[in-house]
Each structure stands twice: as C-alpha cells, then as structure tokens.
C-alpha cells in the first residue's frame, strides 16, 4: 500500500480508497464506532470524505455485544475483494475457530494486496488466517498470554498501542482504535490532515507511552496462606519504610528460602519483584490522585528519590511522572 505524506489539509486521494470493516456477531460497538468516526464520516475540515467506508457481515443481521442493537443493511464478504483496507474489529470468542469462509476471504484480500487491520482481539482472526506468521503484532494486554500460546509464530509486542508491520496493522485495546485510525490517516493523507481530525475528536494525534501504563499490577491470589497474606498487607501499608526480603520473611515467620518458595507458588513472582511492583503501583496512585511533588511521592512509595521514581516509572509505563500524571490524573474530590 503506497503512502503519501505530501497532501495539504484540503487535499485527498481521488478516487477514494475503499475501507471495508468486517463485523462479527457480539462485536464491541466501540471499535466499530472509532473506525466509522475517523475514517468514514464526511470531514469538511479536511475537504470532505477521506475514504469510501463500508460495513460487511456474514449474515443479513448481526447482533452486537450484549444485544445493544442489531446491524442490518450491510454488504457481504464479497466486498472484501474490492477493498484497499480490510478492518477486523474485536473478536468476542477467541477460543472458537472462525468460520472458514471468513478466513478465506481475508486471505484472498491480503493476497490481492489489501492493507489488513486487526482491532484488539481482531488480531486473533488475522493470526488464525495465517497472515501474521513471522510478523510483528500487538493485542490487548489481557489477551497477551493467550495470544502467545495460540500463535507462537507471531512476534507479539504487548507494550505498544499499535503495530504497523508493512501493511499488517494491529491495535491493543478499545481506545487504541483511535490511535491506529489516526495513524492510518497520517500515513495516507499526511500529518496535517491527521492533526486536523484529531483536533475535531479532542484526542491527541499521538499518545506518548504504550499500553504498559494501563496494565494492572497483579494482586495476591486468594489462596495465599494467612501468614503470607498478613505479611503482604503489612508491607502494602508500610511501603515508605525500608522493607526488604528479610523483613518480609520475618513478618511471615518464614526463612528467606521458604518465603521465596511461597511467593513463587502463590503469586508467581519473587518477593523482591512483588515489593517493587507495589511501590511503583503506589507511586502511580499518588500521581493520579494527589498534587504531591515527585520527590514526596518517591519517598512515600519507598522508591527513594525522584530520579529513581522517574527511572522505574518510565521502565514500567513508558512515561515520565509528569506525562503519567497528565494522562491519568483523576478529578480530586
């Protein structure tokens, strides 16, 4: 797919490229709405329509997630063979094999040279069709381990918001549909057009960091023994103190070797890794909910210095403390 970044905001390709969105039963309407909003509606601020966008389904009626509404009046799979770009939204059941006719339609479109886009768990569909073999891709962080197990031949990159691997594009979670849609606009029509669209959306044309900043810190499993659970609760309440592995072991009434075994068995990580994750998680909560300076947050979370906090936060989320606070700040009561 040729890319042209020379267009001014008022310019566009003629004729319009055709984008076909393949909609599954029980799909989440959000990703579909993102693609329609960015790529499908008339954009007077950039001279009109950017694409000829159409929706395709395998049946005359498609029931959307939780039965919110039923979609009718769509095109059929044959429209994929005339598409310049094919978009596969999220897939509700990644364990169930997709229908052979859908996979074959995707293979034919790709072989013909169409750009292929998988939104969130839509990456499973592209991988099942064999299109991602040996290629880079991403998926929502909650699906990462399942995707790796099902498709070990794909170079999975779970830390980023989207991946563009030479005509095969994948996006991480629901909101990253907007990131990828704007990337498509920038690739086809130039950065100026993408910036104009993003301003109308009140959404940044490029969000710093990746989906690492949204990954939840695993909590102790409910099956953790009482002694260990008590030590974990004590540590979480005293993160500002110089707690180390020896202190955790003493609190749990265990030797350090026994503590390591219990952590591995019940939490799937080492005591030091768990303690570090709790400190970073606490620092993130303070950045989100308080006006405390970075130096104070570093002390209260047990990370020591502002430099240490910046280093650990960037490693964990890809963002500086100021960028993280700006993006995730909660309204203070």
UniProtKB/TrEMBL annotation:
<keyword id="KW-0805">Transcription regulation</keyword>
<dbReference type="Pfam" id="PF01965">
    <property type="entry name" value="DJ-1_PfpI"/>
</dbReference>
<dbReference type="Pfam" id="PF12833">
    <property type="entry name" value="HTH_18"/>
</dbReference>
<dbReference type="InterPro" id="IPR029062">
    <property type="entry name" value="Class_I_gatase-like"/>
</dbReference>
<dbReference type="GO" id="GO:0043565">
    <property type="term" value="F:sequence-specific DNA binding"/>
</dbReference>
<feature type="domain" description="HTH araC/xylS-type">
    <location>
        <begin position="229"/>
        <end position="327"/>
    </location>
</feature>
<dbReference type="InterPro" id="IPR002818">
    <property type="entry name" value="DJ-1/PfpI"/>
</dbReference>
<dbReference type="InterPro" id="IPR018060">
    <property type="entry name" value="HTH_AraC"/>
</dbReference>
<dbReference type="GO" id="GO:0003700">
    <property type="term" value="F:DNA-binding transcription factor activity"/>
</dbReference>
<keyword id="KW-0804">Transcription</keyword>
<protein>
    <submittedName>
        <fullName>Helix-turn-helix domain-containing protein</fullName>
    </submittedName>
</protein>
<dbReference type="InterPro" id="IPR052158">
    <property type="entry name" value="INH-QAR"/>
</dbReference>
<dbReference type="InterPro" id="IPR009057">
    <property type="entry name" value="Homeodomain-like_sf"/>
</dbReference>
């Amino acid at each position: 797919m040729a890319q042209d970044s020379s267009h001014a905001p008022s310019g566009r390709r003629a004729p319009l490229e055709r984008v076909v969105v393949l909609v599954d039963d029980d799909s989440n309407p959000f990703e579909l709405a993102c693609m329609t909003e960015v790529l499908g509606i008339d954009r007077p601020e950039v001279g009109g329509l950017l694409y000829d966008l159409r929706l395709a389904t395998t049946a005359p009626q498609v029931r959307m997630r939780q039965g919110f509404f039923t979609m009718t009046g769509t095109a059929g799979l044959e429209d994929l063979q005339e598409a310049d770009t094919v978009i596969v939204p999220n897939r509700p059941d990644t364990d169930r094999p997709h229908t052979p006719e859908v996979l074959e339609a995707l293979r034919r479109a790709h072989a013909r040279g169409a750009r292929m886009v998988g939104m969130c768990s839509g990456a499973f569909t592209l991988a099942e069709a064999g299109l991602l073999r040996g290629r880079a891709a991403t998926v929502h962080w909650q699906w990462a381990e399942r995707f790796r197990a099902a498709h070990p031949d794909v170079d999975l990159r779970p830390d980023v918001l989207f991946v563009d691997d030479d005509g095969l594009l994948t996006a991480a979670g629901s909101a990253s549909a907007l990131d990828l849609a704007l990337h498509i606009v920038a690739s086809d029509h130039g950065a100026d057009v993408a910036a104009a669209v993003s301003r109308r959306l009140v959404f940044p044309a490029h969000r710093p960091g990746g989906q690492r900043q949204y990954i939840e810190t695993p909590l102790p499993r409910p099956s953790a023994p009482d002694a260990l659970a008590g030590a974990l609760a004590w540590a979480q309440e005293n993160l500002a103190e110089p707690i180390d592995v020896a202190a955790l072991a003493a609190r749990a009434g265990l030797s350090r070797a026994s503590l390591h075994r219990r952590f591995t068995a019940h939490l799937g990580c080492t005591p030091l890794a768990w303690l570090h994750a709790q400190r970073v998680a606490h620092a993130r909560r303070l950045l989100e909910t308080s006006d405390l300076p970075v130096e104070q947050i570093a002390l209260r979370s047990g990370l020591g210095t502002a430099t240490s906090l910046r280093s650990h936060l960037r490693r964990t989320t890809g963002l500086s403390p100021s960028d993280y606070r700006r993006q995730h700040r909660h309204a203070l009561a």
